[in-house]
Design goal:
This protein has about 350 residues and is α/β, with parallel strands linked by helices. The protein has one domain: TIM Barrel (Alpha-Beta Barrel), CATH 3.20.20. It is built from 14 helices and 12 strands. Strands 3-4-5-6-7-8-11-12 form an 8-stranded parallel β-barrel, surrounded by 6 helices. Strands 1-2 form a two-stranded antiparallel ribbon. Strand 6, helix 6 and strand 7 form a beta-alpha-beta unit.
Length: about 350
C-alpha cells in the first residue's frame, strides 16, 4: 500500500518537475500524470510493451498506475503487477488503482461470450441474473467482492490503494436510479469492510457519463447522493469516516463537461462535477486525458497557444491536469516512447486558475 513516507520520499527523489506536478492524495502525494492501461490487443507482445512502458514511467517520476479487471481480459492487471514488482521503485511509493463492474473474460475473447458468462458467473452463483445488465455488467456487493479478490491475485498485491466501482450508470439501462443507489450503498458497505480489514486504502466511482451529464440525462447519477450513500455505508459497518475518496471521469480539451455542466446540488446551488468533488474533498482522476490518442495529433489552435509542451499530447495532458480539483490525469501508456513523452509533460507548468478559466470565455 502506498504510504505517506514512501510517496514523499519518491517526490524528493524526482525534483526535476514543474510546480504542482506532485499533488496531495490522502496523507501522501501522487504525480499529476498517471499511467492508463485500457487500450491494446490481448497479446503477449502488447503485454511486454505495457510492462516496459510502466516500468519506465515508475522509474521516471510517475507513481500512479490505473487499470481494471476487464481491461484486455485481465491482462492489464497482470502486467501492472509485474511492472510494479520489476521496477526499481518502492511498492509503497506507488498508488495502484483498479476497478470492478464489468464481467471480465480471462486472457482472451471467448468464442461464445454469453456461454462464458453463464458458466463462469451465473451458473456458479457469483452473479444473479437480475443483477446482470447488458449481459456484461454487475455491481452487486458479492460480485464486486469476488472481483476485488481476483484483482489482488492478478496484481500480486496484498492491498489496493484505490478501488473503483466501474461505470455504475450502466445499470440504469434496466434499473431505476434509486435501485442503483441502493446497490451502490450495499457495495460501498462491502468496500468499507475491506478497508477496515486492511485490504484496501480507498474506494471510488469510475464513470463515463454519469457525473458529467445534465440531471435529466438517462445516464445521470448524483454525486451528492453517492457521497451520502457512502457515509451511510461507513456508519453501517462501524467506520467513523467513509473511505470514499475519489471519482474518475473523462476530461480533456474536447470533453470538458465535468467543468462546464452544473448538475450537482452544492451548498450554494448547482455545481459541476469538478467543483462539487473539490468542495466535498474527493480527488478527481481524469480518464481519456488525450481522448484515446486523438488529441496527440492535434488540439484546437486557440487552446494550444495557451498551453506549454513540445507535443500536442503534452499540451493536452497539461490542459487536463490544469482543471480545478484534478489530482491526476491518466494517459494510456502502451510503449516506452509514449511513457517518456507523457512523463515529460510534467516538466512544464500547468495553467493557473485564471488562465484555465479564460479558455472557456
Amino acid at each position: 500500500m502506498a504510504t505517506r513516507e514512501a510517496t514523499w520520499a519518491y517526490r524528493d527523489d524526482h525534483d526535476e518537475f514543474a510546480r504542482t506536478f506532485y499533488r496531495r492524495f490522502g496523507d501522501g502525494v501522487v504525480s499529476s500524470v498517471g499511467v492508463g492501461t485500457y487500450l491494446g490487443d490481448p497479446t503477449d507482445e502488447r503485454d511486454a510493451s505495457y510492462r516496459d512502458a510502466i516500468v519506465t514511467a515508475l522509474e521516471s517520476g510517475v507513481n500512479v498506475v490505473d487499470t481494471a479487471i476487464n481491461y484486455r481480459h485481465q491482462r492489464s492487471e497482470r502486467v501492472v503487477g509485474e511492472a510494479v514488482a520489476d521496477a526499481d521503485v518502492d511498492r509503497e511509493a506507488v498508488a495502484v488503482a483498479t476497478k470492478g463492474g464489468f464481467v471480465p473474460f480471462d486472457g482472451d475473447h471467448p468464442d461464445d461470450p454469453g456461454a462464458f458468462v453463464r458458466s463462469e458467473y451465473v451458473d456458479t452463483g457469483l452473479v444473479d441474473r437480475d443483477d446482470l445488465v447488458a449481459g456484461q455488467h454487475c455491481i452487486a456487493p458479492a460480485f464486486v467482492d469476488d472481483q476485488f479478490d481476483r484483482s489482488l491475485d492478478n496484481l500480486g498485491l496484498d492491498t489496493v490503494d484505490l478501488y473503483y466501482v466501474h461505470n455504475p450508470e450502466t445499470q440504469l439501462q434496466s434499473k431505476s436510479r434509486d435501485a442503483v443507489y441502493d446497490q451502490l450503498e450495499g457495495t460501498f458497505e462491502r468496500l468499507e469492510e475491506r478497508a477496515a480489514a486492511g485490504d484496501l486504502r480507498y474506494y471510488g466511482v469510475a464513470t463515463w457519463e454519469a457525473f458529467r451529464v445534465p440531471a435529466d440525462h438517462d445516464s445521470y447519477l448524483s454525486l451528492p447522493e453517492v457521497v451520502e450513500r457512502a457515509r451511510t455505508a461507513a456508519s453501517a459497518v462501524g467506520n467513523t469516516a467513509t473511505h470514499l475518496r475519489a471519482i474518475q471521469l473523462p476530461f480533456n480539451v474536447a470533453m470538458a463537461d465535468a467543468f462546464t455542466v452544473a448538475a450537482h446540488d452544492g451548498a450554494e446551488g448547482p455545481q459541476s462535477a469538478l467543483w462539487f468533488a473539490h468542495e466535498a474533498g474527493l480527488d478527481v482522476f481524469t480518464s481519456a486525458s488525450i481522448m484515446q490518442g486523438q488529441l496527440a495529433a492535434e488540439i484546437p489552435d486557440e487552446v494550444a497557444a495557451r498551453l506549454s509542451g513540445e507535443t500536442s499530447a503534452q499540451r493536452a495532458i497539461n490542459f487536463a491536469r490544469s482543471a480545478p480539483g484534478v489530482t491526476c490525469s491518466l494517459v494510456g501508456t502502451g510503449s516506452v516512447e509514449h511513457a517518456r513523452e507523457n512523463v515529460d509533460a510534467g516538466r512544464y507548468e500547468p495553467l493557473g486558475a485564471d488562465a484555465f478559466d479564460a479558455v472557456f470565455q
